[in-house]
């Protein structure tokens, strides 16, 4: 087991050195506004660091010292001038039982601009105390081992979540469900490495038989299969996090701009009877059935135009359609003709627009201007499950369209659970692909060689690289550039 022990020892020393180095950076005490800027009823100013206790003593003069995690009403004074700033609540969180792992205090004061400014001026007067950088409180929590990088990213997504589905996904990640999934995978890989190195060290002495090696290889193959399933998610988690790009397309004057105005319940696009009014891509962000949707109104698709600006708008529309997650194809229902030739009309319409057939799998067909149809024709069209009948003018059929849209959004964004967490970051996907490549290289080498031809002591470096790839996701490997990017997305007081 010498190789396995050496590997684990070196890894532990690397981590200890990493943590010690970061501790030196965090010698100063930081403070920041955690409740957001602007006038409000209550402003929360958070302080974290070794000077927190002395700050409480000088700013409140309380005796005895406040009890941990218990709100206390107190007069709050300026640390330099001794003038009273406000009367508010105080919460004391001694380390390591705090968010950052350090001594932490929160001042809940009235949210006036002058009060917050006076609190900042007062706190800055204490030695080795400064305003926190964006995300620095969370960064200290990470370095203290309070959370890993996936939980940090989940917390950031939770703060920025705008829809119910985004909130649920972010909350699961912030609560550590994704971390548990990756840490379990990493633990199994480390165990497999230990078994293989034990086989290398002791197989000649007959202390370890071939079953140990075969068992380790089987574990690795199981992880490969698990990773493939995890990666083969059609990017649902990333789509839910970033928004479903939805293009509203069709010929000129079929009601595309009217549809985006109806869905958004405001005048996003100009609606006129003049063909080619929309020249550029108009994007708007919405919450539809709890899912984030980026609606894009596009130029009407047609070939018979000499207008240079409109031609550029059509080219941009076609480019957008290629990368959109969902298409809402708008058709003028009054031009359909005989009801028994609807399918042929739709097919010819799609060809005339130049939309590729493979894009139809992510398309909802919306028949607009259905208020111009007779009742018999309308009822027959409603029985066609591939069509959504709508009148942007009267809003008839809107509820049915929204229900179909909800079903399609659920398919596109999925339903992440504890048992099957989703990948929500491109960074995660990149490292997981690298991990899978490393594991497949080991597996292929093992299959292509046998017995004395195998140099397992060297090929296990593929497994170590796989472990490092997972470590880059959770933050168990130092990746300073990645950390700076992640924590910079936070606000000052977080």
Molecular structure report:
Helices cover 49% and strands 16% of the residues. It has 18 helices and twelve strands. The protein has a six-stranded mixed β-sheet. Strands 8-9-7-10-11-12 form a six-stranded mixed β-sheet, sandwiched between helices. The longest helix has 26 residues, at 177-202. It is flat, with a radius of gyration of 30 Å. Residues 1-14 have low confidence and may be disordered.
Write the layout of secondary structure elements.
Layout: H1 2-25, E1 29-33, E2 40-48, H2 52-60, E3 72-77, E4 84-93, E5 104-111, H3 113-124, E6 129-131, H4 136-143, H5 149-160, H6 164-174, H7 177-202, H8 210-231, H9 236-242, E7 244-250, H10 256-264, E8 282-288, E9 291-297, H11 308-323, E10 326-332, H12 342-353, E11 363-368, H13 375-382, E12 387-389, H14 398-413, H15 426-448, H16 456-459, H17 461-474, H18 480-487
Helix pairs in contact: 1-7, 5-6, 7-8, 7-17, 8-15, 15-17
């Amino acid at each position: 087991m010498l190789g396995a022990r050496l590997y684990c020892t070196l890894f532990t020393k690397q981590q200890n050195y990493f943590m010690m180095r970061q501790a030196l950076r965090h010698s100063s005490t930081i403070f920041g506004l955690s409740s957001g800027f602007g006038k409000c009823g209550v402003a929360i100013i958070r302080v974290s660091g070794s000077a927190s206790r002395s700050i409480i003593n000088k700013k409140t003069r309380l005796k005895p010292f406040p009890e941990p995690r218990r709100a206390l009403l107190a007069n709050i004074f300026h640390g330099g001038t001794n003038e009273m700033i406000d009367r508010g609540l105080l919460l004391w969180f001694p380390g390591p039982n705090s968010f950052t792992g350090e001594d932490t205090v929160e001042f809940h004061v009235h949210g006036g601009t002058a009060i917050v400014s006076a609190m900042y001026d007062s706190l800055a007067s204490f030695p080795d105390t400064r305003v926190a950088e964006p995300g620095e409180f969370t960064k200290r929590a990470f370095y203290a081992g309070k959370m890993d990088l996936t939980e940090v990213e989940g917390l950031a997504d939770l703060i920025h979540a705008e829809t119910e589905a985004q909130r649920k996904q972010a909350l699961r990640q912030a609560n550590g469900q994704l971390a548990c999934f990756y840490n379990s995978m990493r633990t199994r890989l480390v165990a497999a490495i230990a078994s293989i190195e034990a086989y290398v060290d002791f197989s000649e002495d007959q202390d370890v038989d071939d079953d140990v090696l075969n068992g380790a290889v089987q574990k690795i193959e199981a992880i490969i299969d698990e990773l493939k399933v995890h990666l083969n998610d059609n990017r649902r988690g990333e789509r839910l996090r970033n928004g479903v790009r939805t293009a509203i397309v069709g010929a000129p004057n079929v009601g595309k701009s009217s549809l985006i105005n109806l869905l958004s319940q405001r005048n996003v696009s100009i609606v006129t009877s003049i063909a080619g009014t929309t020249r550029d891509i108009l994007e708007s962000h919405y919450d539809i059935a709890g899912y984030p949707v980026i609606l894009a109104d596009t130029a009407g698709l047609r070939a018979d135009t000499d207008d240079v600006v409109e031609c550029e708008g059509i080219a941009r529309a076609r480019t957008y359609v290629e990368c959109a997650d969902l298409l809402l194809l708008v058709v003028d229902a009054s031009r359909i003709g005989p009801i028994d030739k609807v399918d042929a009309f739709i097919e010819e319409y799609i060809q005339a627009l130049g939309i590729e057939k493979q894009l139809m799998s992510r398309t909802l067909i919306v028949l607009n201007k259905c208020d111009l149809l007779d009742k018999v024709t309308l009822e027959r069209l409603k029985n066609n499950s591939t069509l959504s009948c709508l009148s942007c003018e009267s809003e008839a059929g809107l509820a049915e369209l929204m229900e179909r849209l909800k079903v399609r959004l659920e398919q596109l964004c999925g339903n992440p659970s504890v048992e099957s967490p989703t990948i929500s970051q491109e960074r995660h996907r990149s490292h997981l692909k690298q991990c899978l490549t490393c594991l497949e290289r080991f597996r292929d080498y093992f299959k292509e060689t046998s017995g004395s031809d195998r140099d397992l002591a060297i090929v296990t470096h593929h497994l170590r690289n796989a472990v490092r790839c997972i470590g880059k996701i959770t933050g168990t490997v130092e990746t300073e550039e990645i950390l700076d990017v992640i924590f910079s997305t936070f606000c000052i007081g977080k």
